[in-house]
Amino acid sequence: MITLTTPHQIQSWRKRLPARGSIGFVPTMGALHDGHLSLIKRAKKENALTVVSLFVNPIQFGPKEDFARYPRPRRKDTALLKKTGVDVLFAPNTKAMYPNDVLTSVIVKDLTDTLCGAPSSRGPAHFSGVATVVAKLFNLVRPTQAYFGLKDYQQVRIIEQMNEDLNMGITIIRCPTVRDSDGLARSSRNTLLSPQERKVAPLLYAALQRGRKLLRSPRKMSLREFRHQIKSTLLTIPNVKIDYIELVDPKTLHKCESPRAPALLAAAIRLGTTRLIDNILVTR
Amino acid sequence: MITLTTPHQIQSWRKRLPARGSIGFVPTMGALHDGHLSLIKRAKKENALTVVSLFVNPIQFGPKEDFARYPRPRRKDTALLKKTGVDVLFAPNTKAMYPNDVLTSVIVKDLTDTLCGAPSSRGPAHFSGVATVVAKLFNLVRPTQAYFGLKDYQQVRIIEQMNEDLNMGITIIRCPTVRDSDGLARSSRNTLLSPQERKVAPLLYAALQRGRKLLRSPRKMSLREFRHQIKSTLLTIPNVKIDYIELVDPKTLHKCESPRAPALLAAAIRLGTTRLIDNILVTR
Predict the structure, then answer these.
(1) DSSP type of residue A4
(2) Interface of B with A (CB under 8 A)
(3) Which domains occur in chain A, in start order?
(4) Do B109 and A103 touch (CB under 8 A)?
(5) What per-residue confidence (pLDDT) applies to A20?
(6) Which of B106, B137, B171 is the mutation pick for testing A, counting most A CBs within 10 A?
(7) Mean pLDDT for the stretch of residues B97-116
(8) Residue B269 contacts residue B204 (beta carbons within 8 Å)
């Protein structure tokens, strides 16, 4: 595995490659878990070369968010990537990615100001930070295919839209959410949970599963009643704070007017100081 | 000369090229004049292949601006490009470039909301429209070098900044403004001037030249007096409307606090319904 740490290094590496031949790319913030590994293994299987980036992107964190606290087990991550057979690890530091004031940003209208981007949640600056860093990484790596996990469904939609609107010409591959045996979606933030919090965290997924059942049942109900049902399941979690529960159109992320499939059911909660998100795509 | 009209066509063409070998790119809105030709000739000289795009970009025009009226002498342009020995002409229509609602835009903070981007001028949406379409074209063509004329100095700075911030890895080449023998900067909009307007239009450049002389003279003056001097030259033009006269830092485009070189002296005026811009980079 080659490790590169500056934009200049990866650009030089990229220029030396022949024009043909597929490059799979998995951008990550590190603290790798089975979710990441499933993306990386798939990228390896489908491409001649696999590039993984490891960068905790400051511009996608709000001033009150957990940038400093975000887990950074760099040695463990590097060993894992080497063992998995990744060809190139791109691990820049903040100064390498943002040498000066960042004047340029990529904005994806509509998709960024709902769910996790709502003013009452992380706010729209979060996803412009995500879109901007992914645009930078795409330009540096110039992959043929890039792999993203559906746990961050909204992020996937934003990147798909950016890729299409800006004619980036990359194939964006959606990969299923990987879960622990009790249903909790794998997330780097799970390591921040206390043992008690970890124990009740799967109720987030249980609430979404209940939502799926309701959406598929023949019984008609109002959106209000539907949300109330999900909410009451989530409220059985001790000390939970609900960030949002939303039922949205899977493409536009516009809020559904009634509980009907196909739809994306997404929720975010806080357990203590840790924020967890999950979603279920409910087909008809 | 190959003519391509869809993103898909140019992406396929680009993919077939070998990884090495330079590609020069000149994005234009057509209505080609000697200014464009100077860029194209330089691109030809410096690159193995030269691509010119021809696209009147609707999203950089305000609702009250001259999108409909913008000159589109397509046949003449095509003949000229063929004669100049361009390798590829990319001439998409609006539907090809914007098949759906445009949700994604590229914003370049600070540089876009001054001069032509000031709310009292064309407004900041103009340059986000420029940055967005240039990002799209860069992604489609993936040139090694791209050529821009300094008549649109602010545009050049915005594209340089975007290229750097988003790690696009393209060399942006600044090319000098080409002028008629009477000093008027070549512009596609010059054809919209009446004979009387055309006759007095060179006074815009004359006013900027006067500004350069003042900046280089040992006599101290206030910014207010300096602007007044330029303004009085411009006001000798019959029926002129002054959009702005600004002295700014050539890199940040922040307004200078006193009349001192190095600085960019830029002005925009309206003659009848036609808007003209020009600038002089004054070195020490």
Answers:
(1) E
(2) 7, 11, 15-20, 100, 102-111, 131-132, 135-136, 139-140, 161-162, 165-169
(3) 2-175 (3.40.50.620), 188-282 (3.30.1300.10)
(4) yes
(5) 85
(6) B106
(7) 95
(8) yes
Mutate to test the interface with B, among A4, A17, A20, A167 (most CBs of B within 10 A): A167
Give A28's pLDDT tier (boundaries 50, 70, 90).
Answer: very high
Which residues in chain B have Cβ-Cβ distances shorter than 8 Å to A19? 15-19
Taking residues B215-233, what's their average pLDDT? 95
CB contacts < 8 A, A to B, total: 85
Taking residues A118-139, what's their average pLDDT?
96
Q: How many CB atoms lie within 10 A of CB B68?
A: 9
Instruction: Give the other-Cβ count within 10 Å of B215's Cβ.
Output: 21
Provide the edge-to-edge strand list for the sheet that holds B240-248.
B240-248, B263-271, B274-282
pTM of the full structure: 0.97
How much is the pLDDT for A82?
98
Q: What is the DSSP string of A66-119?
A: STTTS---HHHHHHHHHHHT-SEEE---HHHH-SS---EEEEETTTSSSGGGST
DSSP state of A273: T
A254 given a catalytic annotation: no
- Residues in A closer than 8 angstroms to B102, CB to CB, are 165
- Is A104 close to B131, i.e. CB distance below 8 A? yes
Contacts of A166 in chain B (CB under 8 A): 104, 106, 132, 135-136, 139
pLDDT digits (tens, 9 = 90+) for A197-219: 999 999 999 999 999 999 999 98
Are A104 and B140 a contacting pair at CB < 8 A?
A: no
What is the percent of chain A where pLDDT is above 90? 96
Token pair of A27, please? 């951008």
State the first-to-last Cα distance of chain A, in angstroms, to the nearest integer.
44
Query: Would you state the pLDDT for residue B284?
Result: 80
- What confidence category does residue A19 fall into, taking pLDDT thresholds of 50, 70 and 90? confident
Yes or no, beta carbons of B104 and A19 under 8 Å apart? no
**Strand B274-282 to strand B263-271: parallel, antiparallel, or no bridges (unpaired)?**
antiparallel
DSSP string, B111-138: TSSSGGGSTTTT-HHHHHHHHHHHHHHH
Give the closest of B7, B108, B166 to A139, CB-based: B166
Residues 6+ apart with CB under 8 A from B162: A104, B106, B108, B131, B134, B135, B168
